[in-house]
Amino acid sequence: MVKYLKNVVTLQHNEEKCTNCGMCVTVCPHRVFEKSGGKVKIIDRDLCMRHELSFRSD
Amino acid sequence: MPNQSCCSGSSAAKKKSAGCCGGGTSTATPHQLQPVVKNQNCCSDTKPAETGSSQKASGCGGAVQPCEWISGSVQTPVGEVPRVGTTLSSADVLDAWKCRWGIGRMDYAIDPGLYCVGNPDAQALVLVTSNYKMTFDRLRKELSGLDAWIVVLDTDGINVWCAAGKGTFSTEELVNRLQATRLLEIVSHRTIILPQLGASGVAAHLVAKQSGFRVVYGPVRACDIKGFLKAGMQATDEMRTVRFTFRDRLVLTPVELIAALKKVIIVFGVMFILTATGLGQYGLIDLYAFLGAVFVGTVFAPALLPWIPGRAFSLKGFFPGFLLAVGIILINGFLPASAYNWLRAAAYLLLLPALSAFWTINFTGSSTYTSLSGVDKEMRIALPIMIISTGIGAILMLVNDLIHGFG
């Protein structure tokens, strides 16, 4: 996979607020997240394109 | 200026033709009734009076011209629902091709509402999509042999991913559309399948709360829908991953090429006037030099993106633009010649790579992997350099004209 610039991604994972529902793992088209052992984590942050309105919690 | 991810483009004054979305204010009126098509005529004036949307279905241009992609209707408890075919006609293919070249692309929409394929009943699948006709065609083409309902959201004729980013493929629009189509009365189950790339605009838990329907995210590409269904509504990792293949990139280049050509014509106009009035001497070389820079920046670099060094799109556009300039200079034997030619050569070296870099940055708006924060950073660094380089190059051209004209 071609990658864009390094360290420009604003994506953050707040472990305290995360309910580990895994929706991010399902919907992310660049497979940035992974769920293992019931915990969600970011596996490759630089792959994120941070589509503007993603993951609004409203 | 690039409009990031085809839509948001918050940092740039956006040209309608440059991205996949363009401007267009939403005309969506909540609680529209479904476009009940009674006489197989999607452009008829028998639509519900409440419908506030303008007639958008292109490919059904005239007032009474029948809409060939609608083939009959299915009777439901709430009325007739138009059935659409699962094969694309030559007109569908031609219209899609025209969109790729920027013709009629900002107005290629169908009426939102409920449609179906096959003979769906109360247990049939429900698929949700956008009202960009190309998107809708891509979907129905993959549904041969299936009986399914299709809920088309009003996304202003924008594809699912861009519309989700823009906020038109949204929780609100989905909930309103489900209500307006009275889907609750048509199907007995409570599951709807959304395209995965619509996820950024939709909060699935709120849809469930407000509409009663559970959202399942299908694959990224419509061509994987049958595989997804066969696996019991499970998508593989591959189905969930967005791609950007050579072909994917190549089909996006004509729109960029046409948009760039429209701007370069102005440069040619200036050159023509300068030449005609005797103030400058421009000819065939300048013509193909600038056309070459356009082609390199809008087609060559985007198509060969992964194989050109660098991560920044500006660099990916700069390198081949630089080679182009060197090539043109060598072919035309500028180097060993007089000061006149040295100036022109220097101008080319400053102008052509900067221009091709600029147009390649534009392609970040079409790419499937560039982030807005990244493009912002790239623009902050590359844009001043490109402007200065282009400015000095243009001045050298004019100085060259002066020397040649009066020297």
Describe the protein.
The complex is a heterodimer of chains A (58) and B (407). Chain A is mainly beta and 58 residues long. Chain A contains 1 helix and 2 strands. Chain A has one helix at 23-27, and strands at residues 33-36, 39-42. In chain A, strands 1-2 form a two-stranded antiparallel ribbon. In chain A, strand 1 (33-36) and strand 2 form a beta hairpin. The model of chain A is unreliable at 52-58 (pLDDT under 50). Chain B is 45% helix and 9% strand. In chain B, helix 8 runs antiparallel to helix 9 and helix 9 (284-303) packs parallel to helix 11 (339-362). Chain B is elongated and about 85 Å long. The relative contact order of chain B is 0.10. Classes of the chains: A mainly beta (58), B mainly alpha (407). The interface between A and B is medium-sized, with 28 and 38 residues.
Write the layout of secondary structure elements.
The complex is a heterodimer of chains A (about 60) and B (about 400).
Chain A: H1 23-27, E1 33-36, E2 39-42
Antiparallel strand pairs in A: 1-2
Chain B: E1 70-76, E2 79-84, H1 90-100, E3 113-117, E4 125-130, H2 133-141, E5 148-153, H3 160-166, H4 171-181, H5 183-186, E6 191-194, H6 204-211, E7 214-217, H7 225-230, H8 246-276, H9 284-303, H10 313-331, H11 339-362, H12 372-406
Parallel strand pairs in B: 4-5, 6-7
Antiparallel strand pairs in B: 1-2, 3-5
